[in-house]
Design the sequence.
């Protein structure tokens, strides 16, 4: 809602960037602590984190370009700037990066997915708080008491009570991080926590899309993210069922 936090020596600190940076740092610190607790290679963690961050950022930007491709053709630099990302692009390319690196270095992708994805949910929660400060990813107009009015200069329409979809998403992401961390402390097949992240996130994202009012692209009657959510949910459910079957066969 107030994206310009302060100005120091002529440099303006923006709430969106601050929350993204804070979430990224906390994500790494939490993942590092959990890796040490499990006796995992923290040097490999840093490699995974850095490359997943780079390719995840690129994937989030690429999917955004695809969703606004006509605008990109007319004015590429307006799309390729620091603003405009689709989270799903970052998740999918980030997961793919981790998978390929684990295969190359003969590491267990399932183990690292269980370690990293709860921390990713934590980072996403802070990212959504940044969205709220900037006014992007805004909700539909509402007469409910929870409606939020954004000031002029935000990405959201000014002066209109809107559903705080950013705060709803942030709360969901933070709760998901806590839930996954709790589940990860219990005995489970390797990879189960990682795929539960994909299941819970895809369901939550599918539902929150009904409340949003910003343009996000569409595939038929679904938004781009809803369409991807369906595919991610089905793939994760099938994989989780396979993992559960393997666990049962070893009992």
Sequence:
């Amino acid at each position: 809602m107030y994206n310009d936090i302060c100005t120091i020596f002529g440099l303006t600190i923006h709430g969106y960037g601050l929350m993204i940076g804070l979430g990224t740092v906390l994500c790494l610190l939490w993942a590092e602590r959990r890796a040490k607790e499990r006796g995992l290679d923290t040097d490999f963690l840093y490699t995974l984190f850095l490359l997943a961050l780079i390719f995840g950022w690129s994937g989030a930007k690429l999917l955004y370009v695809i969703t606004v491709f006509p605008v990109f053709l007319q004015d590429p630099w307006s799309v390729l700037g620091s603003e405009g990302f689709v989270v799903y692009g970052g998740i999918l390319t980030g997961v793919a990066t981790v998978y390929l690196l684990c295969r190359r270095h003969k590491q267990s992708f399932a183990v690292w997915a269980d370690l990293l994805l709860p921390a990713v949910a934590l980072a996403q929660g802070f990212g959504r708080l940044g969205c709220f400060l900037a006014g992007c990813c805004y909700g539909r107009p509402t007469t409910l008491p929870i409606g939020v009015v954004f000031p002029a200069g935000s990405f959201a329409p000014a002066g209109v009570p809107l559903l705080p979809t950013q705060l709803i998403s942030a709360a969901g992401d933070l709760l998901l991080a806590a839930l996954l961390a709790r589940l990860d402390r219990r005995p489970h097949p390797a990879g189960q926590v990682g795929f539960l992240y994909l299941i819970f996130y895809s369901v939550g994202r599918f539902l929150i899309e009904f409340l949003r009012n910003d343009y996000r692209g569409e595939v038929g009657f679904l938004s781009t993210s809803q369409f991807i959510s369906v595919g991610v949910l089905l793939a994760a459910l099938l994989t989780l069922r396979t993992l559960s079957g393997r666990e049962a066969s070893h009992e």
Q: What stands out?
A: The mean pLDDT is 89. The longest helix spans residues 42-67.
